[in-house]
Amino acid sequence: MNGQAKAAALHAAADALRADADTILAANTLDCDAGAARGLSSAMLDRLRLDPARLGAIADSVDAVADLPDPVGEEIDRRIAPAGMVLRRVRVPIGVIGIIYESRPNVTIDAAALCVRSGNAVILRGGSEAVHSNRALHSSFTRGLARAGMDADAVQLVPTQDRDAVGAMLAASGGIDLIIPRGGKSLVARVQADARVPVLAHLDGICHSFVHAAANPDMARAIVVNAKLRRTGICGAMETLLIDRDYPDSATLLAALVDGGCEVRGDDMVLELEPRAVSVSDEDWDTEYLDAIVSVALVAGLDGALAHIAAHSSGHTDAIITDDPAAAARFQTEVDSAIVMVNASSQFADGGEFGLGAEIGIATGRLHARGPVALEGLTTYKWLVEGTGQVRT
Questions:
Q1: Of 159, 50, 62, the residue nearest 105 (C-alpha)
Q2: Among 185-194, 200-209, 296-305, 357-366, whose mean pLDDT is lowest?
Q3: Distance between CA atoms of 284 and 280, rounded to whole angstroms?
């Protein structure tokens, strides 16, 4: 299908989601009620829950993806070979992509829209927590595709929650070209250990914010509170706050977090500054809370922050708050994470905020895509060679 036809199919799918809103929200209510009865955490329930505004935003995101430039056929570069042939690299779809994910029903639509726009077929395997929501969303989405003339089987949802289905996907070398896991550490670990298919992994979002000695206090307070508390259940939420020991206003930062309803877990220096804090454990530095909890350490300047991040970051998003351009430049150079920020909240670690449309995840590895994975991350390339009769001697 050409780009115009794919865009039309996605617009039709977005319209179907809006038309079926009552059915989708009723299915989501079943999942949320079941999740609450099973004792799911508040963070998990927040990820699971849909409401009219969230569902409307999901449909809007499909329209936004439809309106993005079609990456397929895009010329990446062109050159002339020594023998005179014209060499062009152009983007092409990867093929069949398998998405294995937990709890978030929006992933069903985000993944489907991105795969359709990038010319890939997709096999979706959602978690049992969102089974009713996923089925309702998939049904509406594919019905919209079919109305616009696309084969609905381009987007398939595994019809069983049997864990053996995951094993079958991981072993489907030659049938599935890429696996993308979206979920907790145990899911990603299983996928990486068992897959016979290339994996694009998204590990924990253990995101750090470092308040440098030269940080503007008002900016630092606003960014730190937002990075932790805007939405605690997303992977871009700050989980560890590092404060330069020479920063003059540490107590105000800690008080702002506690006053905002956050539990602060800190070392001895933190406990001296904020009596409402509790002691941090070694495990806390490597924990993705996805809740109103933050680990805090006072560190010996930029060197101390860099050492802590190197030891504990998951490679997702790390940020520095400073008015010192040299410190900012060194931080961005030496922190080896997919996203490295200066004077901004880690909550901006999102494909939509990066202008990429919906994202399929934040890749924390190094191959083949890194950071927010959107349309370009779901393509590969091939070489097109045009000669005029050249033969090689």
A1: 50
A2: 357-366
A3: 6
Cβ burial of 174 (10 Å; 0-12, 13-18, 19+) is exposed
DSSP SS3 for 234: coil
Q: Which of 59, 89, 98 is nearest to 71 (CA)?
A: 89
Residue 341 has pLDDT above 90, yes or no: yes
Instruction: Judge contact between 130 and 31, C-beta under 8 A.
Output: yes
> Residue 351: pLDDT band by 50, 70, 90 thresholds?
confident
Q: Judge contact between 114 and 358, C-beta under 8 A.
A: yes
Which residues are CB-neighbours of 105 under 8 A, at least 6 positions away?
28, 31, 48, 50, 126, 130, 133, 134, 137
| 3: three-class secondary structure by DSSP | helix
74/123 Cα distance (integer angstroms): 25
What is the tens place of the pLDDT at every residue in 108-137?
999 999 999 999 999 999 999 999 999 999
Q: What is the pLDDT of residues 254-306, one digit of tens each?
A: 999 999 999 999 999 999 999 999 999 999 999 999 899 999 999 999 999 99
Q: CA quadruple 335, 337, 341, 345: dihedral positive or negative? A: negative
Q: Of 205, 221, 211, 208, which is closest to residue 260 (Cα–Cα)?
A: 221
User: Which residues lie below 8 Å from residue 221, measured CB to CB, with a gap of 6+?
Assistant: 249, 252, 253, 256
Q: At what angle do helices 131-147 and 106-117 cross, to 10 degrees?
A: 30
Q: Model-level pTM? A: 0.84
Cα separations in angstroms, 131 against 27, 39, 99, 101, 322: 9, 17, 15, 11, 45
On whether the CB atoms of residues 349 and 362 are closer than 8 A, the answer is yes
CA–CA distance, 30 with 130 (Å, rounded to integer): 9
Strand order of the β-sheet with 379-386 is: 75-80, 86-93, 379-386
Question: Domains plus CATH for the chain?
Answer: 3-202 (3.40.605.10), 207-348 (3.40.309.10)
Q: Are 119 and 152 in contact (CB under 8 A)?
A: no
